[in-house]
UniProtKB/TrEMBL annotation:
The lineage of its organism: Bacteria, Bacillati, Bacillota, Bacilli, Bacillales. It comes from the Bacteria. SUPFAM superfamilies: Periplasmic binding protein-like II. Gene3D superfamilies: Periplasmic binding protein-like II. This is Sugar-binding protein. Keywords: Cell membrane, Lipoprotein, Membrane, Palmitate, Signal. InterPro entries: Bact_solute-bd_prot1 (IPR050490), SBP (IPR006059). The keyword Lipoprotein applies. Residues 1-22 form the signal peptide.
C-alpha cells in the first residue's frame, strides 16, 4: 500500500516586507473570528490559489466549488480565484498590507505556514472542523512545527505523495525518428544519442528536449538528473550533513550533462526563455521528444494537448539505475484560513464538506492531477482516469521515499525557518535557478565557483539564523538539521528519530 504524502511545487518569491507585516484579528476568546453575516443572507467565502488546481471552470478545484455551491445554494457561496505565481504573490502581499486577505488562501511561493502563523495572519482549524476530520489522512500528515504549531492545525495535505521529476516522452516523435516509441532512454548516454538522432531528423523543426527555462525548467531538469548521482544532495540541502550542497557533485555533474545536450544542439532553442506551460504545449505538439517535469504535467498535457501520444518513465541516470526522490509526510505549505475572516463557521463547513471531502478526493484522483492523501482512494484502480495513470502510480511507489524532517525532530527549528522565510532562503539573490540560467546562457562562467559562492551564503544564513533564535531563548542547534543515520534507500521512520536522541 502507498503510505506517502505530498508536496506543492511553486516558483517565484514573496517580498520580505510581506512576511514581516504584523497581523491582528478580531477574534473570539478561543482564537476563531466571529461571523457577522445577517440571518437569511448568503455568506460569500473567497478562496485564492496559485496552483492549476483552481485554473479554469473544469479544474478539480472549480468543479468542487460549483458542486458545493449548488448543495448550499442560498446559504453559502464560495468564489475561487486562480492567479499565476508572480501575480498571486503580489496580490497576497497587497492583501496583507490592506488587511483584506481572502478567507482561504494558499501559501505564496517560497513562503511558509510557520511565518504566517508567527505574524498572526492565519487561524487554526481547531474548533472549525470535526474531531474526526484529521483521521481521514495518511499517517504522518500532521506534525508539530510543520503544519501544526503549538498543538494547533493550520493546514492539511491537499495532495498525496508528489513526484517532482518524471521523463515524459513523445511516442509520435520517437516513431517518426525511427526509434522505438515504447523504449524510452534509461541512461544519460542513451538520452543524449536519441536526442541527437531526433534533432538531426527534425531539421530545425523537432528537437530532442524542451525546457521551461524562463521559469524553473533548468533547475528542475538538473535536480531530476542529480537524483541519479547523489540523491541526498537534490534540492540543494543535504539532510545527512545538515549543510547546503548546491556545489556538490550531483548538481555539477548534472549541469555539465545539460550543457552537453545544449552543445549538441538537441535542446529546442526557445527553451531558455519560455515558461513551463509553453514548453509542455510544444512537447504535446510534437516539437520535442522529451520533457522533464513533475506529476502535474500529466493531466495538463491531457487537458492542453489531448491528441498527444506520450508515455511516462524514470528520468535517465548515468548508469541506468533507478534514482531516488524524497518527500515529507507533512508539509509547511498549503491552504490556510485568514485571521481576518468574518465567516469562520462557514469556512469550516466548506473545508470539511467540500475542499477535503472524500467524495471530492475520488473525483480529484479521476482528474489525474495527483495522488490523494487518502490511501484507500489511491489504490482504487476503478478511479484511474487513463492507462498512463498506472505507470504514474508505479513511479511514485518505486521512486519516492520519506526523508528526515528537522521540524519533526525539533519543532523549535520553525523559528529558524521563519527567520529564513524558507529553507531555500529566497532573500539571497541571485537564486539557484537564476544562477543556472546565467551559466547555461553563457552570461556567467565557472559553475563550480558560482555555485560555491551561493552555497557559502546559504550556509552562513542558516548559521546566523540558528544563532539569532538561540540568543532569543530557543532550544535549537545546527545539529537539528543533520541526520547522519539516514539510509537513502529507505523511508526515514519514527525509530530513526529516536536513535538520534
Amino acid at each position: 500500500m502507498l503510505k506517502k504524502k505530498w508536496q506543492i511545487i511553486t516558483a517565484g518569491s514573496v517580498g520580505a516586507a510581506m512576511l514581516l507585516t504584523a497581523g491582528c484579528s478580531e477574534s473570539t476568546p478561543n482564537g476563531t473570528a466571529q461571523t457577522d453575516t445577517p440571518n437569511g443572507q448568503e455568506t460569500v467565502i473567497t478562496v485564492w490559489g496559485l496552483s492549476d488546481f483552481l485554473k479554469g471552470e473544469e479544474s478539480p478545484g472549480q468543479r468542487m466549488i460549483s458542486e458545493f455551491n449548488e448543495k448550499n445554494k442560498g446559504e453559502i457561496r464560495v468564489e475561487g480565484r486562480y492567479m499565476p505565481a508572480a501575480e498571486y504573490n503580489t496580490a497576497i502581499q497587497a492583501a496583507i498590507t490592506s488587511n483584506d486577505l481572502p478567507d482561504i488562501f494558499q501559501t505564496p511561493s517560497n513562503s511558509d505556514i510557520r511565518t504566517f502563523v508567527a505574524n498572526g495572519h492565519v487561524l487554526p482549524f481547531d474548533g472549525l472542523v470535526s474531531d474526526s476530520w484529521k483521521g481521514r489522512y495518511l499517517e504522518g500528515s500532521f506534525a508539530e512545527g510543520v503544519n501544526v504549531i503549538d498543538g494547533k492545525i493550520y493546514s492539511w495535505p491537499l495532495t498525496g505523495p508528489t513526484l517532482g521529476s518524471i521523463l515524459y516522452y513523445n511516442k509520435e516523435v520517437l516513431s517518426k525518428a525511427g526509434l522505438d516509441p515504447e523504449t524510452p532512454p534509461k541512461t544519460w548516454d542513451e538520452l543524449r544519442e536519441m536526442s541527437k538522432v531526433i534533432t538531426a531528423k527534425g531539421k530545425g523543426d523537432v528537437y530532442g528536449l524542451v525546457l521551461g527555462g524562463g521559469e524553473t525548467g533548468i533547475a528542475g531538469s538538473v535536480n531530476a538528473f542529480a537524483a541519479g548521482v547523489a540523491p541526498e544532495q537534490v534540492g540543494g540541502f543535504n539532510y545527512q550533513t545538515g549543510k547546503y550542497a548546491y556545489d556538490g557533485k550531483a548538481t555539477l555533474e548534472s549541469f555539465e550533462f545539460l550543457q552537453k545536450l545544449k552543445q549538441d544542439g538537441s535542446i529546442l532553442p526557445s527553451s531558455y526563455t519560455i515558461k513551463l506551460a509553453e514548453a509542455a504545449v510544444l512537447f504535446g505538439q510534437n516539437k520535442a521528444a522529451f520533457l522533464i517535469d513533475g506529476r502535474a504535467r500529466m493531466w495538463l498535457l491531457k487537458r492542453d494537448t489531448p491528441e498527444a501520444k506520450f508515455g511516462l518513465a524514470v528520468v535517465p541516470t548515468p548508469d541506468g539505475s533507478k534514482p531516488t526522490y524524497y518527500y515529507v509526510p507533512s508539509n509547511p505549505t498549503g491552504y490556510m484560513i485568514s485571521s481576518k475572516t468574518k465567516h469562520s463557521k462557514e469556512v469550516g463547513m466548506f473545508l470539511e464538506n467540500g475542499f477535503t471531502d472524500p467524495m471530492f478526493y475520488e473525483k480529484y484522483l479521476k482528474s489525474g492531477v495527483a495522488l490523494t492523501p487518502i490511501d484507500s482512494i489511491n489504490t482504487n484502480k476503478s478511479l484511474y482516469p487513463y492507462p498512463e495513470f498506472e505507470t504514474f502510480i508505479q513511479l511514485h511507489k518505486d521512486l519516492l521515499r520519506v526523508r528526515p524532517d528537522y521540524a519533526v525532530r525539533n519543532p523549535q527549528t520553525a523559528k529558524v525557518i521563519v527567520e529564513l522565510s524558507s529553507i531555500d532562503q529566497p532573500k539571497i539573490k541571485p537564486g539557484y535557478n537564476e544562477i543556472l540560467q546565467a551559466l547555461l546562457s553563457g552570461a556567467q562562467k565557472d559553475a563550480s565557483s558560482q555555485l560555491k559562492g551561493y552555497n557559502d551564503k546559504l550556509n552562513k544564513g542558516l548559521e546566523d539564523s540558528v544563532s539569532k533564535v538561540k540568543t532569543s531563548g530557543a532550544n535549537v542547534d545546527l545539529k537539528d538539521f543533520a541526520f547522519p543515520n539516514w539510509d537513502l534507500k529507505k523511508d526515514y521512520t519514527t525509530n530513526n528519530y529516536k536513535e538520534l536522541k
